[in-house]
Write a structure and sequence with these properties.
The relative contact order is 0.11. The protein is an alpha/beta fold. The chain folds into 2 domains: 108 residues, 3-Layer(aba) Sandwich (Rossmann fold); 74 residues, Beta-grasp domain (Ubiquitin-like (UB roll)). The longest helix has 15 residues. Strand 7 and strand 8 form a beta hairpin. The protein is elongated, with a radius of gyration of 21 Å. A 5-stranded mixed β-sheet has the order 6-5-9-7-8. Strands 1-2-3-4 form a 4-stranded parallel β-sheet, sandwiched between helices. It is 32% helix and 27% strand.
């Protein structure tokens, strides 16, 4: 997260961490001058070589804070008109906006959650595998254990990617968000 403070510059440590991230979210205060903040934040990204000639490999977004203050709606509209980046307004007074922020981050990163289950057991709905959209069964199998590819017999899927619950699928089956996946491998 990058936010606006006159005396602030991106440290080398923040740049190193940012280079390993998938997205950069800039924080804009809707109670302050929008142009000044946007110009400052973009210059910081350019100076740190995170944006070069207007291009960046990172997904960029803006979190607009203090959306509950007088005049914030007008400044929010001004902000969305000045940038083609996704802008998400939040206020700490609302749990709902924080949940919406989580959803926006998830969508912007283009990832899905896939839950797993062992044969004969219930699905682990606490710790999903978070993988890229378009991932297939083989991608999850490799994450579980590299030997799962060589020993793979079949998988079963419950959820949006299946035609029916518990559908038997192969390694090339494309998974969808919230699928539950059971992988059957040959015993050694």
């Amino acid at each position: 997260f990058l936010d606006f403070r006159e005396d602030w510059t991106i440290s080398k440590q923040i740049v190193r961490v940012t280079r390993t991230s998938d997205a950069i979210l800039m924080v804009v205060d809707l109670s302050m001058d929008i142009d000044r903040q946007l110009n400052f934040l973009m210059k910081q990204l350019e100076d740190a070589k995170l944006i070069i000639d207007g291009q960046t490999p990172y997904k960029l977004g803006i979190i607009a804070t203090k959306g509950d203050l007088p005049g914030s709606k007008e400044r929010y509209e001004e902000l969305t008109n000045k940038t083609n980046l996704p802008v998400h307004p939040i206020t700490i007074k609302s749990e709902e906006t924080l949940e919406d922020l989580k959803k926006m981050l998830f969508e912007q990163l283009e990832v899905i959650r896939v839950y797993t289950k062992k044969p004969g057991q219930k699905a682990d709905l606490e710790q999903p595998f978070v993988i890229s959209e378009g991932s297939i069964v083989a991608d999850v199998a490799k994450k579980i254990h590299t030997s799962f590819i060589d020993r793979f017999k079949y998988a079963r899927v419950w959820g949006p990617s299946g035609e029916f619950e518990g559908q038997q699928v192969g390694l090339e089956h494309e998974l969808a968000d919230t699928d539950v996946l059971e992988i059957i491998v040959e015993r050694r």
